[in-house]
Amino acid sequence: MNYFPDEVLEPVFDFITSHKDRNSVSLVCKSWFKIERYSRQRVFIGNCYSTCPERLIARFPGLKSLTLKGKPHFADFNLVPHDWGGFLYPWIEALAKSRIGLEELRLKRMVVSDESLELLSKSFVNFKSLVLVSCEGFTTDGLAAIAANCRFLRELDLQENEVDDHRGHWLSCFPESCTSLVSLNFACLKGEINLGALERLVARSPNLKSLRLNRAVPFDTLEKLLMQAPQLLDLGTGSYVPDPSSEAYNRLKSAIQRCKSIRSLSGFLEVNPRCMSAIYPICANLTFLNLSYAPGLSGNELTKLIQHCRKLQRLWILDYIGDKGLGVVASTCKELQELRVFPTDPLGAGNAAVTEEGLVLISAGCPKLNSLLYFCQQMTNAALITVAKNCPNFICFRLCILDPIKPDPVTNRPLDEGFGAIVESCEGLKRLSLSGLLSDQVFLYIGMYAKQLEMLSIAFAGDSDEGMLYVLNGCKKLRKLEIRDSPFGNAALLEDVGKYETMRSLWMSSCEVTLGGCKTLAEKMPSLSVEIINESQQMEFSLDDRTVDKMYLYRTLVGHRKDAPEFVWIL
Amino acid sequence: MEGSVAYENDLNLEATELRLGLPGTDEREEQTVSNVRNNKRPLQVADEECGANGKSNTQNETAPHAKAQIVGWPPIRSYRKNNFQPKKSECEGPGIYVKVSMDGAAYLRKIDLKVYTGYPELLRALENMFKFTLGEYSDREGYKGSDYAPTYEDKDGDWMLVGDVPWEMFITSCNRLRIMKGSEARGLGCGV
């Protein structure tokens, strides 16, 4: 292949789109590395501290789309202090100074300031798409800058961000000349919206395919928007509290009939449950239904709605659906691939919550199921074994028993055998989250069977270092390991230090690793950054045998980061 | 605090034994179950009951009101967690506390109506509080399918079925709640 000129190889490489494949291609030889880097347009950086903007810009001059992830996953659950890091600004600053024509930016768990949004909006003429997931640090002023300055903006997608809402008129900042919007999602904003500006914006966006509104958008506006945009594929309602006797409600019913393309539905942040029947006409074609932010429905109304959704592939709901409701899902949604059941009341136990029964029903009725997130009151080994038999295709299996060390209530045993059955049966399993009472045995099974596992989340599990060692030794493809409140210590941490170079990151909090152990690891592996997050200020640097509160380590090409706050020690 | 916690370091040879059998074919000894209990680190909880206590499941014995709050658990994005408490934090002024009685119950309870966004949430909360189930609501027949009916006393002193009027009207006119049981409840919904 070395005898082919670059012009022949370039179009061939154009067909290679996945990041993994591109990375492999670049390792073959110097000439392939060169061709690949010049032709690469999309780059994914799973840990923003593993490299730096300068290296990115130097290697990929043709960069158009950048995905960046910042804080470790457990930051989503308040385990990482706010100012830990993950700042966007340095990236935008460096990219702005370069000749990179950035068009798309996708961020997860990053700290995004208004300044960075403003700089972004002014620096890249062809900027088209901004997707922010679980980010923080910005206000609606930053959004106003994006709206005002990105003349060819196609996508503004805000998912579950903490945004300081200045109740401004950011929506009005889209100029009259902006007609290019394809996707607009502001469901996570808490404040008021200029409704007139929204209506006008939708009216002049003929390519708009995805629209997700926030709670402040009332029913009357929804009805008007639907009249303007019958071409929508994806709709997220804001408030859905119609007066059933009103003209607006009648108009909505006919507007819905015209929206024949809607395949994805979400929202109902506030809802009049008696008016859900207006939605039934679009249910037949839905492939994604997200009612996980709609606590205002009853289990009955929810199941009645789902009975109309025979083509559903992805379903996100709250646990008030109950086991019986899941039975209805199982008998209706034969195409179901992904199910997420969130707790209605995260802190308490409710009658309406789900148990192992619901999951078994789903597994029996939905053989295509490959992705699960399930918050439940209890789980049994028998149920998990049945689920494993019924659904061998799981790629992602996340089970969260609300009581974190609850055993199998029938046998009073740990859930080792149940999870063992899952990993043994599901050969393609890439992501696993454990909960319930678990001993080292479950890790033995994971190390033995979970050969494709890339991400593992452990909480309150295991008996000894053996548990962690089974995983580190057995899971060859492991990339991310996050552990909390489990009795794993230095012996496990230090047994195979080279392993961490093959992984993106390791998180351990409230475990048994000591400061001395972490120091040893940092010494042996200069290619890793070993961070100790120490909020309590009790720790003195010299006391090596004290256990560490939170440790986060990751491989990096660029050494220790310079932006760490005071409470983060990089060893 | 957690640095000084000791736990037993058992050899636990069985756990390291490699087996080729399917999981679940070889029953584990009772002994290893108790090893598990003793090795478990106590949770970082305020609840003192959760110490190692032999084989019995202490979690079952914990009273509902002593449910401990563990940092970062359950693992739900903070955005989602915060989203479900907005009524409580955005509440301006005092709550609307009403007494709730249940036929046959020894004592009454009190709830704050402002905390709920609508009937389904309120009814779920009542079901949880008194451990019962309501039937399905319909305009014509009230709550069909159970022995219970939720009623309230309005400003005129009349006993009304919960669910007929818009929510906002309900919370401003509700003086107290009563969950009726038995034949009295069944008679309420019928159009006889």
UniProtKB/TrEMBL annotation, chain A:
Biochemical pathway: Protein modification; protein ubiquitination
Keyword Metal-binding carried by entry: no
Main location: nucleus
Keyword Transmembrane helix belongs to the record: no
Domain F-box as annotated: residue spans: 4-45
Cellular compartment(s): Nucleus
Coiled-coil segments: none
GO cellular component, one term: nucleus
Record keywords, A-Z: Auxin signaling pathway, Developmental protein, Nucleus, Ubl conjugation pathway
GO-annotated molecular function: auxin binding
GO terms for biological process, alphabetical: auxin-activated signaling pathway; pollen maturation; SCF-dependent proteasomal ubiquitin-dependent protein catabolic process
SUPFAM superfamilies tied to this protein: RNI-like
Name the record gives this protein: Protein AUXIN SIGNALING F-BOX 2-like
From TrEMBL, chain B:
Keyword Nucleus attached: yes
SUPFAM superfamilies in UniProt: CAD & PB1 domains
Pfam families named among the record's database cross-references: AUX_IAA (PF02309)
UniProt entry tagged with the keyword Methyltransferase: no
Domain annotation PB1: ranges: 95-182
InterPro entries assigned: AUX/IAA_dom, AUX_IAA, PB1-like
Family annotation (PROSITE patterns): PB1
Localization per record: Nucleus
Any one GO cellular component localisation term in the record: nucleus
Keywords carried by this UniProt record: Auxin signaling pathway, Nucleus, Repressor, Transcription, Transcription regulation
Alphabetical GO biological process terms: auxin-activated signaling pathway; regulation of DNA-templated transcription
Subunit structure: Homodimers and heterodimers.
Family: Belongs to the Aux/IAA family.
Stated role: Aux/IAA proteins are short-lived transcriptional factors that function as repressors of early auxin response genes at low auxin concentrations.
Protein name as it appears in the record: Auxin-responsive protein
Organism taxonomic ancestry: Eukaryota, Viridiplantae, Streptophyta, Embryophyta, Tracheophyta
This protein's encoding gene: LOC111291729
